[in-house]
Amino acid sequence: MFQRVKYSIKAVIKSILPPFIYNISLKGFNKFQNRLSILLNKGFPAPWSRGYVEYKMRMVSRSLSDDDLLGKFRNREMLPEGYGYGLDERIIEYPWLFANLPKEACNILDAGSILNHKTIIEQSCWSNKKLHIATLAPEPVCFWQKGISYLYEDLRCLPMKDNFYDVIICLSTIEHIGCDNTIHTKDGTHRETRLDDYLQAIKELRRVLKPDGSLFLSVPFGKYEYLGMFQQFDLLLLNHAMSSFGPAIKVREDFFKYSKGGWQISKADECSDCTFVKWIIEAWQKRSVPFVVPTEGDLAAAARAVACIHLVKKGAN
Q1: What is this structure's pTM?
Q2: How far apart are CA 275 and CA 232, in angstroms?
Q3: Does residue 133 sit in the same domain as residue 168?
Q4: How many CB atoms lie within 10 A of CB 67?
Q5: CA 253 to CA 80: how far, in whole Å?
Q6: How far is it, in rounded angstroms, from Cα 314 to Cα 317?
Q7: Which of these, 97, 100, 301, 309, lies nearest to 198 by C-alpha position?
């Protein structure tokens, strides 16, 4: 109801003011809202308000350069108090990945294009490695000049040979498999409700992974929710995903939960009632943040829990 009222106010103002004055007023309001959110939220922008993404990536970059913090992720230690407050789960997934990524890996597949960001691609760990990024459709930004190969393919049917990659990275991706992905591709054939197809994708990732190779996997976690664009996994779906991977010689399961105190390492059962921030789903679908950006009481940005899984493929005896 409140959301409809906000849109109605915007429509009324737009109908009253001349377009030129309206556009100036809107820009002024957005700047005011951003400054207010920074003031109210301890010096940083509220989730998805003006400047949020830039602030988040600065915090990600700072985390990736903090050896002590990466050690906490590697050793499953408590994170600093207030870590990641007001930020989405990328502030967990990226440092968790970098803390556990094998240095000796040469051929790496990013299954889902989670690495396709300037802050991430410029990290030194990618030097002297072959990095392939597989996603459904081209994105506005790419880094082919750095020698990165882009493959526009469906993870359920990959065109690579068996046992090719040393490492496969699939963060915040399999929950989208078989759901409505038209926001990414503008192709109506990608509006699906094949909710078990993530299992097929896991099997395909195993096929192209070398024996003793690592799969790094993450999903939004907590109470099961089907949100059109993706599914939030519960423990049942997560167990199905790991079972579909097949024999593994190493299984690492890490769970992180968001609260008013920020992100913290947790346990699966402690995350079981966590829910996803609903308003952002509609905003993503419309590719437009509301005129007045909503804020959750805990300042959550997206998922309130995330499961991070490291599987190592067991080779043939």
Answers
A1: 0.86
A2: 8
A3: yes
A4: 9
A5: 20
A6: 9
A7: 309
